[in-house]
């Protein structure tokens, strides 16, 4: 005999229709003949079916459907059945909580793209990747027309009031506030992001053949909860303390680069001067050749005229013309010789200047090598000084610790001295003087080291 409440059969039918709409199934209860729904509680003969056919879905099944706990049992009141039916009907009509929202704003150092607005359903991942024929660029997705991205680069999702991102094994990586999530081609763990974080997909890639640089995607994240409130900005920073050794090495690299740039600039200036001088000499030589050809042509013309005059003119006129031509010829020869002499003199001066420049270059290279050796020696001295300073600093710290221990012992001895006879005071004064002399020696050593640094050109080392 099974006792059911009023309206239980109608409620079970509504639940069955809702589960079918969401892809779940449940065996429908059988209604024996002679029983009318809604007639109050009744006494029925149980049909020969499994017990699960008359029991509604369990709590876990309904929680998987829409996240609402529901546990039907025998003896529910009419008011409870009515509220449950209204809740199931409302969710069956598609009334769900609004999704979370993520906005990607393009930054100036990014590959250009339009700002994206992503709607994030709870526990549903949104893919970030490169545009392909099946997935095109749109304002409501995270697909970008960028060559440095992978097709499945990363995923972004919302869960339990938090936003997460994960790199799906991309080759160029995913960065949050300049921190890479995983090594190359490795899947990363979920990383929680906050509003205001800077996300970078990929890195800039330069093609050697075309000398063309493909930019990566750099965006500012703006995250909004389903109720419209923006999440709090991240308070964590990814900047760590830089060791002094790295700073010293970086300073050396910078100084070497500056020296190389200065040397290259001086060499470029010298080469520019030599090139300009060569251009001037080439132009003057070319002009001298042109003048020489012009003079030779002039001589040929005059010789032709002389032949014509010999045929037509008298001997006196010919003699006068010959004298004039000879004078002109001498004048042209003198001017040509003077021009050639100037050209050769300028060429000789240019060769002398070039030789002087080469000698100056050799001397500069020798000085540079000497300066490099001096710099290497200075660096070695600096390292030795740093080591000595560290050892002295360690000894000083040990002495300070000993002094603190001695002060504690002095306090104990002082308290006990009030009871002991005065002869013990001499031993106390002796031990105090010895400890004071040793501490003063350490302090004097440290002051001497600091004076050495102050007199030298080296910077004061940082305390490690």
Which characteristics define this entry?
464 residues; alpha+beta; disordered C terminus; flat; single chain; cell membrane; endoplasmic reticulum; Tumour Suppressor Smad4; 5-stranded mixed β-sheet; cytoplasm; 6-stranded antiparallel β-sheet; 3 domains
**Main sheet summary:** 6 strands, antiparallel
Q: Which term fits the overall shape?
A: flat
The succession of helices and strands, N to C, reads: EHEHHEEEEEEEEEEEEEHHH
Our Rg estimate from Cα atoms comes to 49 Å
Walk across the major sheet and give the strand order. Answer: 4-3-15-12-9-10
Distance N terminus to C terminus?
85 Å
Query: How many alpha or pi helices?
Result: 6
Query: Strand portion, in percent?
Result: 5-15%
Q: By helix and strand content, what is the structural category?
A: alpha+beta
Q: Considering DSSP H and I runs of 4 or more, what fraction of the residues is helical?
A: 40-55%
How many domains would you count in the coordinates? Answer: 3
SS elements, strand count:
15
Task: Return residue spans where pLDDT drops below 50 for at least 5 consecutive residues.
Answer: 27-94, 458-464
Provide mean pLDDT, rounded. 77
